[in-house]
Amino acid sequence: MATDFAVVISEPTESGGTRRFRAQESKPCPPKRMQGKRGHMTRLGTALKPCLQAPMSEPQTAAELIQQGLVHHRAGQISLAMDRYTQVLRNDPRNADALYYIAMIACHEGQFQQGIDLARRSLSFRPRQARAYNLIGQALHRMEKLRDALENFDNAIECDANLADAYSNRANMLSELGRISEALSSFDRALALNPNSALDWLNRGATLDGAGRPEEAIASYDKAIAIDPDFGVSHCNRAHALIEVGRDEEAIAAYDRAVTLEPKMAEAYLGRALALKKLGRQDDALASVDKAIAIKADVSKMHEARASLLRSLGREGEARAAEARAAELVAKAGKSGTAAAG
Questions:
Q1: How is 126-162 classified by DSSP, letter by letter?
Q2: What gap in Å lies between CA 65 and CA 52, rounded to an integer?
Q3: Distance in angstroms (rounded) separating the CA atoms of residues 257 and 162
Q4: Which residues, including other chains, have CB under 8 Å from residue 327's CB and lie 6 or more apart?
Q5: What's the pLDDT tens digit per position in 76-126?
Q6: Cross-strand partners of 12
Q7: 99 in helix, strand or coil?
Q8: Percent helix, strand and coil across the chain, each to the nearest 5
Q9: Mean per-residue pLDDT for 257-276?
């Protein structure tokens, strides 16, 4: 059963640094993660007072324009933010702050190479910016250049040994590279700096689970849920680990909580079906798999699970049809992979 892993990109803070938002996407295990993907934005908690524009007769300073851009940026008014940042660059093409914030926007819009180039240009005018190395590392991760990403997170930490985000992102890269002990050390450092990061507790738990340490993973998920009880992925991951240690009834309750919070989470319905099957509740398990397939009809493992349940219920003809559908999806995925490689 895949565990979900959350990975982060940054947004500007009031001080001009960065805060992170969650996004997730499915990755195969081990280690099982969810990234980039489907975002849960961590918004700034402090209300910001809008900047007052200077009279038209008085030219605005770069600092004033940057501050106005940040207000728009945090409010999601990206075109207005870009207008302020580019106005700064028209007057001062070497302004490191404007280059950095435009790089951030480029990355958020999926233009990762452009974002990297802009962030590097910002560094050329103001070296040793931890935030810029951190952003470059995030973009490289999205481009699946894990070792290059790791190098940039290390550079960020060298510039600022107290940048929790860099330790978190570094830990995610190390986990994907199979360097579990180093990943856990990096998560622990991130959590020492920011113990209330539900995201880091979640990702630490996913790393432990992927390393075959489900009991420790459950403890980490419990921490994540205590901080942010309304994030469905944490409940779903916890349920996966509970199944691994034989706590099936608790797992079903955790899956139920996950789908209450995120009704379109197909993986939770599938995991719930497997727990129900272990308890001999075959009909309930089949109903849960059917819900998963209604959400994600093109995932082969869901049809395979359905075939197994149908066979256990003596519905052989339907089981063979489900197996055929699973095989069709596997073949389709193989063709897509071959085409992409070509």
A1: S---HHHHHHHHHHHHHTT-HHHHHHHHHHHHHH-TT
A2: 11
A3: 35
A4: 300
A5: 999 999 999 999 999 999 999 999 999 999 999 999 999 999 999 999 999
A6: 18
A7: helix
A8: 65, 5, 30
A9: 97
